[in-house]
Amino acid sequence: MNTPQAALVWLLLVPWVKPAPPAAQSSPTETFGEIWDYEEPPRDGGDMKRNEILTILHDLQKDESTTEQPERAEAGEMPTCLLCVCLSGSVYCEETDIDAVPPLPKETNYLYARFNKIKKITAKDFADIPNLRRLDFTGNLIEDIEDGAFSRLSLLEELTLAENRLLKLPILPAKLTLFNARHNKLKSKGIKANTFKLKNLSFLYLDHNDLDSVPPHLPESLRILHLQFNNIADITDDTFCKSNDTRYIRSRVDEIRMEGNPILLGKHPNSFICLKRLPTGTYY
Questions:
Q1: DSSP at 251
Q2: To the nearest 5 percent, what fractions of the chain are helix, strand and coil?
Q3: For residue 253, which of 214, 228, 226 has the smallest C-alpha distance?
Q4: pLDDT of residue 130
Q5: What is the mean pLDDT of the segment spanning 103-112?
Q6: Closest-CA residue to 132 (of 163, 161, 111)
Q7: DSSP label at 280?
Q8: Cys staple from 232: which of 33, 88, 261, 275, with CB 3.0 to 4.6 Å?
């Protein structure tokens, strides 16, 4: 971005920057750091100002791209970065009404494609984007994901598919630490036995689905498990623990939520002997 454009952005942003107390004024660098902390934007009235800022940046980026970077157009990257906002390895395609995953710059690390109309994720969507670390498709219309869609994403750590229409899950990347598929239509038969056999998985959100059992082979790394508001009616002594090992402790688990299921947890006291805390849910 050239100097006049940077100055224009600064002038447009100044009215929205909360002034610091006179005794400890923040520098322009610190102020910009506060403004562009955009990884998880709030869904409230504050979005209007943020969206206005992003629109300004989008227009400036468009002008730069068309006048200074013709080689990117030849590479096929221009359409996405005109429709969306591309910033230092992050691509923001939020509320743009796209109905498919757009072509991404090869250097993309983070993709936020929330609140669009995407219906399907295919194996070719990320075939040439090996450095992806986070994908967020919250609030789309996704019904189908091809099994090979994430197979080449060896660095992917966080995958969010919340608020879609999924009935089943694909094969997941081995290095995932967070998987969020809450508020879908998932059924237990749509989750393969080894789907969550991932040695780094710490956060698993499957609440508000149509599961009738707890997924098998939950990893030792798991810390948070949300299964509330499904149709789970039964568990066994091996669901969370090991019935043949009374000394086994699942030490890393901090929270299991099972409220809103038809199961009466009080009928299964031996199912929780390895846990530090009892799951939340109905006991009697």
A1: T
A2: 25, 10, 65
A3: 226
A4: 93
A5: 95
A6: 111
A7: B
A8: 261
* Cβ–Cβ under 8 Å, residues 277 and 257: no
In the chain, the amino acid numbered 238 is D
- Threshold 0.90, pTM exceeds: no
- Whether residue 109 contacts residue 136, with contact meaning beta carbons closer than 8 Å, is answered with no
The DSSP bridge pattern shows strands 110-112 and 134-136 to be: parallel
Helix (H) or strand (E) holding 11: helix 3-13
**Residues 142 and 119: beta-carbon distance below 8 Å:** yes
The DSSP code for 71 is H
List beta partners, residue 178.
Answer: 158, 203
Instruction: Give buried/exposed letters for 240-254 (b at 16+ CB in 10 A, else e).
Output: bbeeeeeeeebeebe
Give the angle 13-15-16 at the CA atoms, nearest 5°: 70
Q: What percent of the chain stands above pLDDT 70?
A: 72
Q: Give the phi and the psi of residue 120 in degrees, each rounded to 5.
A: -150, 145
